[in-house]
Design a protein that fits this description.
single chain; 417 residues; alpha+beta; five-stranded mixed β-sheet; five-stranded antiparallel β-sheet; elongated
């Protein structure tokens, strides 16, 4: 077997011989029949299609998110989309796929049902003919933007595994076991809240959420209750005192350990998946899960001493993600009242109070992120921490009072003795 393909070799100015070699070795995506004036993209890149468009070439091996918005929905499909999206047709559909070196993946637009049908559901004989003649499609294939996209996409998604995708975005029956995971801007998750009396919201268990169907993908994120961040089984058996329940509510280290189990990388991978679901697929459920994980990690105060390697990796993942956010992210409505600012200050305080018991690597990682946030967003986390320390506010209260709290469901449980 030859050496692995080097994405850096796939430059826009490569010579013809190199281009021919890489055409064979890189992955290709053949898209047949997509309507003109559709938006079609992969990872961070997106184009408006014309009559000659039939797919992409020079796709680096690895995980990619292919996404599209059909050009002209008609009749029944347009009315259905308007009903589903409140009249807004600017929604994205797409799929995750781990492209292999030299692979050609074939997709075809179904005009009757107005959907993009992926290779496993197509006529296998026709697919084989397309693949044998793939070089004939070369003039009609766009080029994956290596220089602009490849490295930052890899850094944002390198922890996401097929196992995570299979659990978090189970494919519909016709794509089961085919490494194709459907996503849309409107698909729901197992954590979508159900309104209750008095405006309270309750997250249902994943068991009551239907599995992905042919036309309706679903997201299944890690389920944990931030409002009950203690061992509920032990509490029900009377093995936790009211003071212990209150402490676990303020410091979510027990819950973090319970969620991580023996596979801390799984939660970090889910942080990456939730973020790209928001950033690229425009799925708000991804943002909600990303925010929940931020609360869980940054409010696990004792864990900074117990799990320093996890926090170092978490801060590295977070910095890479924030590098892709607009400069006004901390004042944007989506940022929910600067909740990230408050949570990062809370994490800084946990590290500060641990003093010499915390890992020097973790201190360095926190300092690096703090400096980046200051330069990129103009947010002085150190000044906020000093103000907090000077005010004498107790650990675990920030994010739970006034404008810092998003809603009553995020408030800690305080048990009277």
């Amino acid at each position: 077997m030859g050496s692995r393909i080097d994405p850096r070799a796939m430059r826009a100015d490569m010579d013809p011989d190199t281009a021919l070699t890489l055409f064979d070795r890189a992955a290709k995506l053949l898209v047949r029949g997509l309507p003109d004036h559709s938006d079609f993209g992969i990872d961070f890149a997106e184009w408006e299609t014309g009559p000659r468009f039939q797919g992409l070439k020079f796709i680096p091996p690895g995980l990619h998110l292919v996404h599209y918005r059909p050009g002209k929905l008609s009749g029944e499909h347009r009315r259905a989309s308007e009903s589903m999206l409140g009249g807004d047709l600017e929604f994205r559909l797409g799929f995750f796929h781990h492209f292999q070196e030299g692979e050609t993946l074939v997709c075809e637009w179904d005009a009757a049902n107005e959907e993009l049908v992926l290779e496993p559901a197509l006529d296998p004989d026709q697919v084989s003919r397309y693949k044998l003649a793939i070089r004939e499609f070369d003039p009609h294939l766009g080029t994956y933007p290596i220089n602009e996209t490849a490295d930052k996409w890899r850094r944002l998604t390198h922890l996401i595994t097929p196992q995570l995708l299979c659990r978090a975005i189970p494919p519909p029956p016709r794509y089961a076991g085919k490494d194709l995971y459907l996503i849309s801007a409107t698909c729901e998750s197992n954590l979508d809240a159900i309104p209750q009396r008095g405006g309270a919201r309750q997250a249902p268990s994943s068991a009551v959420v239907p599995a992905s169907t042919e036309n309706e993908p679903r997201l299944f994120f890690a389920d944990f209750d931030l409002k009950r961040s203690w061992d509920t089984t032990a509490a029900s058996a009377g093995k936790l005192t009211p003071a212990q329940i209150t402490q676990h509510s303020l410091d979510k280290s027990w819950l973090l350990g319970h969620v991580l189990g023996n596979r801390p990388g799984d939660l970090l991978a889910e942080v990456q998946l939730a973020f790209v679901c928001l950033l690229v697929a425009h799925n708000f459920a991804g943002f909600e899960q990303w925010k929940r994980i931020m609360h869980l990690v940054c409010q696990s105060h004792d864990a900074v001493e117990e799990r320093p390697d996890f926090f170092v990796d978490f801060l590295s993942v977070l910095k890479i993600q924030l590098e892709e956010c607009p400069a006004d992210f901390f004042v944007d409505a989506l940022a929910s009242g600067n909740f990230i600012h408050h949570l990062l200050v809370e994490l800084m305080e946990s590290i500060h109070e641990a003093e010499d018991r915390v890992s020097p690597r973790l201190e360095t990682a926190m300092d690096t992120l703090t400096e980046f946030v200051h330069q990129r967003f103009g947010m002085d986390l150190r000044a906020s921490l000093n103000h907090r320390l000077a005010g004498g506010r107790g650990l675990g209260t920030l994010g739970y009072s006034g404008a810092d709290s998003e809603d009553d469901d995020d408030l800690p449980v305080l048990v009277e003795l």
